[in-house]
Amino acid sequence: MRAVMLVGGFGTRLRPLTITTPKPMLPIVNVPLLELELLHLKDYGVDEVILSTGYLPDVFDEYFGDGSRLGIRLIHITEQEPLGTCGAVKNVEKFLGDDPVIVCNGDILTDLDISALVSYHNEKKATVTITLTPVEDPTAYGLVPLEPDGRIKEFVEKPSWDQVVTNLINAGTYVIDPEVFKQVPPGQNYSFERELFPRLLKQGVPMYGFPSDCYWLDLGTPAKYLKAHHDIMERKIEIPLRGNEISEMVFCGEGVKIDKTARINPPCVLGDRVRIASHASVGSLCCLGNDVVVEEGANIEGSVILDRAKIGKDCIIESAIVGKNTVLGPRVHVAEVAVLGDNIVAEEDNEFRHGIRVWPSTRIEAGKIRFYRTG
Ligand code: GDD
Ligand code: MG
Question: 33: closest CA among 273, 169, 218, 171?
């Protein structure tokens, strides 16, 4: 079976992390999201994936190459200009063949039963089948109301609250008969959600929704990026964790050194060669990348610290993200979904809260950033 994976977006809402790394290549429990997605497809018999890249395409190529390490055939096709979700698939039309193809948004963490989706598509003799998932706030997604027999009634992309008539949204995994791409204009920006799907519906083409109660998360924002980590560590979705389980739900890579006075609170994932100094406390719900250094007395909870970052003495990191190679001096406080990009140096006594985002390679002098609370 063949799939197309859409990974060309800029990941704007996940900046500054996506300035240096495209969203699907961001690590989730120390493995790029796309690797998890590809292995998930492979589990259901997908053996060839066409990667539709645009933004920072070399990062994908350097990491995956032809896919042989994962046991999957990968074809990389890069757009010069963004062609939109549907234009991107039109652009790889010659690779699609005649059989129904799976198309996936590349920013979704899910354990969707793809065999059940494909069987449903075949049973219904559908031309397009769209996986649907219930969400509390559909306004950030594409709303897809259904007829009682599962046929799609309409598409309302990014609805306002007064348009919300169902909690079922487009979950970003489709099965599509490649025939439909004949009517898509080549070389133009074209959208599935706003253009091709509504157009096919008007033509009376059989389009069905496949509601699923699987685990589903769109990794659009820093809060969702943290949530993905928390959910995996809380086993809401079954993703294998790397390393040895040194105590219940504490996973440790190779060459990790933990001082005997340090505390590791489960669940927690530590990459290779992580070093944790005396009286530091890490966890619960923390993921530290390879070569992360945690100095004396630092306290990290509910956070993701990417490769080679250094957390200084007595720092406090709570529900926050620290980018690759970023170095924090003593007593830096990072909390409340603050995001520090890659290669930052923040000297001692700075405070980052309230969703603040610091761009890569910034240098912040001692005590420059503070949050004063009123009342
Ligand atoms: N190759 C390529 N070219 N890929 C693209 C392009 C493009 O021009 N534009 C977006 N993508 C990729 C993104 O990288 C992402 O993996 C996927 O297509 C979806 O784009 P997003 O920008 O993340 O869309 P969204 O989250 O606002 O909305 C979409 O996903 C929702 C579910 O997460 C829509 O499909 C909604 O209807 C849906 O509910
Ligand atoms: Mg998205």
Answer: 218
Q: Which domains does the chain have, with CATH numbers?
A: 2-221 (3.90.550.10), 241-364 (2.160.10.10)
Q: Using the structure block, give the residue that is written with the tokens 């992360």.
A: 292
CA dist., res. 113 & res. 212, Å (int) = 9
State the pLDDT at residue 370: 85
The CA-atom distances, in angstroms, between 307 and each of 9, 48, 208 are 23, 30, 43
Q: Which two tokens stand for residue 360?
A: 């890569």
**To the nearest whole number, what is the mean pLDDT of the chain?**
96
**Which secondary structure element, helix H or strand E, spans residue 38, and what is its range?**
helix 33-43
**Residue 27, SS3 per DSSP:** strand
* Residues with pLDDT less than 50, the chain: none
pLDDT, position 175: 98
Q: How far apart are CA 24 and CA 6, in angstroms?
A: 9
pTM over 0.90: yes
Q: How far is the CA of 141 from the centre of ligand 1 (A)?
A: 10
Q: What is the pLDDT of residue 164?
A: 85
pLDDT of residue 373: 63
Token readout for 165 is 């008539």
Six token digits for residue 34: 């796309």
Q: Which residues line ligand 1 (CB under 6 A)?
A: 6-9, 52, 54, 79, 82-85, 88, 105-108, 141-142, 157, 169-170, 172, 193, 218, 220
Instruction: Say which ligand is closest to the CA of 24.
Output: 1
Is the distance from CB of 343 to CB of 364 less than 8 angstroms? no
Which amino acid, 102? I
Is the peptide bond between 284 and the residue preceding it cis, with omega within 30 degrees of 0?
yes
